[in-house]
Amino acid sequence: MFERIELPEIAPVVTQHRRVGVHCPSCGTRVVAPVPEEARGTPFGPRLHAVATYLKTFQALSYERLQAALSDLFGLTLSQGGLMKLLQRAQAQFQPGREAAISALRRAAVVASDETGVRIEGSNAYHWVFRSAEAVVHQASPTRGACVVREMMDGHRPAVWISDRYTAQQGHGAEHQTCLAHLARDVAYVVEASDDPVPWRLQLWLRSVFSLAEHVTDLAASTLAAKRRSLDRQLGAILATLSRCDLTRDLQAKIGRARDQLLVFLTYPGLVEATNNACERALRPAVVQRKVTNGYRAMWAAEGEAAIRTVVDTARLTGAGTFGTILKTVSA
User: Fold this and answer.
1) DSSP states of 271-323
2) Angle, helix 63-74 to helix 46-58, in steps of 10 degrees
3) What is the pLDDT of residues 8-23, one digit of tens each?
4) Global pTM?
5) How far does Cα 108 stand from its chain's mean position?
């Protein structure tokens, strides 16, 4: 069987509504028919809102490039001001979904967080992400401080918090799982930069931990407890090894400070990850957006995009697609 795949030519569908106006022959009063309900408000339909939102948010198009894409692909000529108002209207539709995601986050037993730098209104700012099994919440903020976490969680303290070693992300859960991928990168750097055997031993130890993490749900609780004690003893011996290398000593000190946060995932098999890679993946589009567009011209744009990403990424947890979620939201 042979197939030939082609896209049909897409042209905008324009529906014109005409109102009848008449004059009374007796008094001369002019009477005009009311505006049909479907013609009230914006002239742009939900699918156009969804397409523009998808291209602007998830393909990182600037207003100029979005104008060109709509013109070249669909024959639509829209001003940048018109596009801005269109996107503002669409973003407002995502606020209820964002509030629902935040509510789910504040009930979660396990929460992970991460952040990355962005430019908002010409100043340095941050794009945060908070993730649980039921929700992914994005937040634009001018600060990297712990106040962002406290405001987001509103007093909720989950059983386990997952993050890197950044101070502002510490102390928000009953227990803390440090992202082992971050430590693995630090260890790999010292392995390459020095001839000391201690970093190499730490690298082998981390490989054993990652191997165990892949099969953590297949093992009994007693087996996991025994392996955790064994790994902790091995790590203690490595950290106690004397070294003349400054890089090694700094690495030993860093890992020693986080020692009680390295193997928490073994106590919660299948519920707590050994790394924070899921948050890093959720932040990657924000990093791409920063590199392509150099940030946001207004705070409303950053906050609106955070709301869109919150609803879309939360829907993805249940297998929903990006454009389908956007279209469903703006059509509601």
Assistant:
1) TS-SS-HHHHHHHHHHHHHHHHH-SBSSHHHHHHHHHHHHHHHHHHTTT--HH
2) 130
3) 888 888 777 787 888 8
4) 0.89
5) 17
